[in-house]
Amino acid sequence: MAEVICLDWRMKKMQNDLTSVEWREFKLSEIFINYHGKRLIEKQRVKGKIPLLTAGESNNGITSFIGNKIVSYKNFISIDMFGNSFYHPYEACGDDNIYFFLNEEVSKYVKIFFVCCINKQKRKYSYGKQFRQKNADNCKVMLPIDSKGNPNWQFMENYMKNIEQKYINNIVNYYNKKLASSYGETISIDEYRN
């Protein structure tokens, strides 16, 4: 049975690339438009299908699903009052503990890269020092830059795609080994697809 191997040389190269590129600080407000969620206490919530975000580390901040008429967004980054950040490719709304960061011009992979950068800073925030509008307006993140000093979108996208591929390879290898140990010699997932 063939084991999935690193698909190309870029995977190994990317492991060292974080130190081989130049970095510069950018305000989130230079790249994203931000919106603040609205207060919606629990007894005012109507059951529905739209995810409602609130402060929390689990379930990407989703606390319930509502049907209230409230502003919702899609394909955005959220940051809650404790500095927890998530990427949401789906439509969702949020309470007053959530800040939405929107930019349709950057890919989901770039947004996921941003989430990683933002989450590195969450130790700055707590119940006593919450992430609020002034933070949303002034929060800075370090980003890789291109030769002109602009955010290097392609680097961020490629970096996250390579990490994603690494996890896919690990999962495929795991299940290929499980199948082989459970049923003896079997075909690999890749052979099954073909």
Automatic annotation (TrEMBL):
<dbReference type="GO" id="GO:0009307">
    <property type="term" value="P:DNA restriction-modification system"/>
</dbReference>
<feature type="domain" description="Type I restriction modification DNA specificity">
    <location>
        <begin position="21"/>
        <end position="171"/>
    </location>
</feature>
<dbReference type="Pfam" id="PF01420">
    <property type="entry name" value="Methylase_S"/>
</dbReference>
<keyword id="KW-0238">DNA-binding</keyword>
<dbReference type="InterPro" id="IPR000055">
    <property type="entry name" value="Restrct_endonuc_typeI_TRD"/>
</dbReference>
<comment type="similarity">
    <text>Belongs to the type-I restriction system S methylase family.</text>
</comment>
<dbReference type="InterPro" id="IPR044946">
    <property type="entry name" value="Restrct_endonuc_typeI_TRD_sf"/>
</dbReference>
<protein>
    <recommendedName>
        <fullName>Type I restriction modification DNA specificity domain-containing protein</fullName>
    </recommendedName>
</protein>
<keyword id="KW-0680">Restriction system</keyword>
<dbReference type="GO" id="GO:0003677">
    <property type="term" value="F:DNA binding"/>
</dbReference>
